[in-house]
Amino acid sequence: MFDLNTIKESIISGNLSQAEELTQSALEAGVTAKEILDGSLVPALDEVGRKFQAGEYFFPELLVAGEATRVAMERLKPELSRSGAPTMGKYAIGTVKGDIHDIGKNIVIMMLEGNGWEVTDLGTDVSTEKFCEVVKEGDYKILGLSALLTTTIPRLAETMDALKEGGLREKVKVMVGGVSINQEYADQIGADAYGKDAFEAVIKARALAGKS
Ligand code: B12
C-alpha cells in the first residue's frame, strides 16, 4: 500500500525531485491520479498555505512548494488529460488580472481535456479586456475564470459586467472558481456555475453544455 503522505511531505518540504519520483512510484503502484491529487497534492498545498498564514513559511517556501506540485502534476497529466470522451466543445480559461496562481486552473484544464473539452489556456494575469476579446472572437461554450486572492476576486464581477456591456453575455456561459470563492459569490455576480474543485468543474461544465 503506497503511503500518500510521502508525496505530501515532499511538497511541503519543497523537494522537487522527490515529489516527482514519488508521484511516479505511486502511479506505478496503481494509485490513481485522482487519489494522488486528493490525498497528497491538495492537502500539501493547504498545509503550505496554513504555514504561510501562520508566519512559519515565507514567499520562497510558497514558491518552491508550488514548483514541487507542478513537477508532480506533470506525471499525472497523461492520465488526467487522456480523453476517450466525445467532443464537448470549446472552453477558454484564465486566471484574472493581478493573480498568478495557476496550479488549480491547470488541474481544471487537465480534467476538462480528459472529459472531451477543447481547452484554450489564456494563462495568468489575464485582463478583463482580453477575456472579452476572446469571447468575441471565438466560439467558446464556456469561459472559466480563476481567482485566488481577496484582492483579485473583484475582477470576476468586473469581467461579468464587461461581458454584459459588450453584448457578449448571451454568447458564453461563465464558470468561476478559486480557493476564496463560493457559490454565494458566484450567484451574486450572476455566473452560470461555481466549481469548488476540478471534479465539480467537469460535472458542471457538462451540465452547462446540456449533456448531464
Ligand atoms: C502555491 C501558492 C502560491 C504560489 C503559486 C504558484 C502557482 N504557479 O500557482 C506563489 C508562490 C506564486 C504564490 C504567490 C502569492 N500568494 Co499564494 N498560495 C499558494 C497556495 C499555497 C496554494 C494555491 C494552490 O495551488 N492550491 C491548490 C489548488 C489545487 O487549489 P485551487 O487553486 O483553489 O484550485 C482548485 C479549486 O479552487 C478549483 N478552481 C480553481 N480555479 C478554477 C476555475 C474554474 C473556472 C473552476 C470551475 C474551478 C476552479 O479547482 C481547482 C482544482 O481542484 C495557497 C494556499 C491555498 N490553500 O490555496 C496560497 C494563497 C492563495 N496565496 C496567498 C497569497 C497572500 C499570495 C501572495 C500575495 C503572497 C505574497 N506576499 O506575495 C502572492 C500573490 C502573487 C499573485 N500576484 O498572484 C493567500 C491568499 C490570501 C487571500 N485570501 O487573498 C493564500 C490563500 C495563502 C494564505 N493562506 O495566506 N502563492
Main traits of this protein?
212 residues, Methyltransferase, Methionine Synthase (B12-binding Domains), Chain A, domain 1, Rossmann fold, 2 domains, five-stranded parallel β-sheet, 5 strands, binds cobalamin
Number of helices: 9
CATH class of the largest domain: Alpha Beta
The ligands bound in this entry are: cobalamin
Return residue spans where pLDDT drops below 50 for at least 5 consecutive residues. none
CATH architecture of the largest domain: 3-Layer(aba) Sandwich
**Radius of gyration, in angstroms, nearest whole number:** 17 Å
What fraction of residues sit in β-strands? Answer: 5-15%
Lateral arrangement of strands in the main beta sheet = 2-1-3-4-5
Structural class computed from helices and strand pairing: alpha/beta
Order of helices and strands: HHHHEHEHEHEHEH
Mean pLDDT: 95
Q: Any idea how many domains? A: 2
Give the oligomeric state. single chain
By CATH, the superfamily of the largest domain comes out as: Cobalamin-binding domain
CATH topology value of the largest domain: Rossmann fold
Helix percentage: 55-70%
How far is it from the N-terminal to the C-terminal residue, by CA?
A: 35 Å
Question: Care to count the β-strands?
Answer: 5
> Given the C-alpha coordinates, what overall shape results?
globular
